[in-house]
Design a protein that fits this description.
- The chain has helices at about 50-60, 60-70, 100-110, 125-145, 155-165, 170-190, 205-220, 220-230, 245-255, 265-275, and strands at about 35-40, 80-85, 100.
- It starts with about 35 loop residues before the first strand and ends in a 9-residue tail after the last helix.
- The chain has a 3-stranded parallel beta sheet.
- The protein contains 10 helices and 3 strands.
- About 45% of the residues lie in helices and about 5% in strands.
- Helix 4 crosses helix 5 (about 155-165), helix 4 packs across helix 6 (about 170-190) and helix 7 (about 205-220) packs antiparallel against helix 8.
- It has about 280 residues and is mostly helical.
Length: about 280
């Protein structure tokens, strides 16, 4: 039996690639919302995180997420919040809230390149891609729980695969920004894994880096990634030969698990709206 890796609603995949790097005063369509989702911006106690709080609240990133989630039928209420966590992440607890941590967002910004890298990754794409990845990853945990969807293997790995799969569903441009930005973040991480660190429930950043490269190469926009993957040397690895099959397994799991919970008419509307975050010069 194939390992079932669950999927978050297609609606979330339309998150704009410039979510953090392009300022915005986005208006959320009144007819696109999910009444089961409550959003909350918690003011940080540490003043160093205040600019992140102000920026994300002004851009209504959580309200946009709620609009993107409109097609998904949740069976209970869910709170999604931005908060100061005292560490980089606040693991999702069954029945609880999804929390995105200011500390993690600050780390994304710290590791983003100041200038365009030799591989063509801009600071804008690095920040946007990594933020969208963590948002999709954390929301995946809640969807697994709320819809009682089966996960074989480690849930952290399943959430990673789901996030990568979603990034590929809405066109080449979105895929390139999100997946290359995510890959850069994991490669740029300065965390050193030793000894008992390898017992962590989450794979190392290096493993996550290669897993995302494999999803990119195995998916529908593989040609768009060939130059990037060649620069890294990924296409010379034995793993690359398996990537199309790995992607097919992800698609099979998506089709088998999530689609019965999705309103296809609303999904099409979310796709067609192409909601972007206009530059307000701030």
């Amino acid at each position: 039996m194939k390992c079932i890796v669950n999927a978050v609603a297609l609606s979330f995949a339309m998150v704009c690639p410039a979510l953090l790097s392009t300022p915005a005063s986005a208006q959320v369509p009144a007819d696109l919302t999910n009444d089961q989702i409550k959003v909350e911006y918690v003011e940080p106690k540490n003043s160093a995180y205040r600019p992140i709080y102000d920026k994300l609240k002004r851009r209504q990133v959580l309200e946009q997420l709620r609009a993107f989630m409109a097609p998904l039928a949740l069976t209970r209420a869910l709170t999604v919040k931005l908060d100061q966590c005292g560490r980089s992440s606040s693991p999702y607890q069954p029945g609880g809230a999804v929390t995105l941590c200011y500390e993690y967002i600050a780390e994304i910004e710290r590791l983003a390149p100041k200038d365009k890298t030799d591989r063509g990754v801009t600071r804008e794409n690095a920040v946007s891609g990594a933020f969208i990845q963590v948002m999709l990853h954390e929301m995946s945990h809640a969807v697994f729980d709320i819809l009682s969807l089966p996960v074989w293997g480690r849930e952290e790995d399943a959430a990673d695969k789901l996030a990568g799969f979603i990034m590929l569903q809405f066109g080449k441009d979105v895929a390139q920004v999100t997946l290359t930005g995510t890959a850069h973040f994991f490669e740029a991480s300065d965390r050193t894994w030793t000894g008992s660190d390898f017992s962590d429930v989450r794979s190392t950043e290096s493993q996550r880096f290669y897993n995302y490269l494999c999803i990119a190469y195995g998916g529908p926009h593989s040609d768009a990634f060939k130059e990037f993957l060649n620069q890294i040397g990924f296409l010379k690895l034995e793993r690359s030969k398996r990537c199309p099959a790995e992607y097919r397994d992800l698609k099979w799991a998506f089709d088998q698990t999530i689609m019965k919970h999705v309103d296809k008419d609303l999904m099409k509307k979310v796709q067609d709206m192409q909601i972007l975050f206009p530059d307000d010069g701030k």
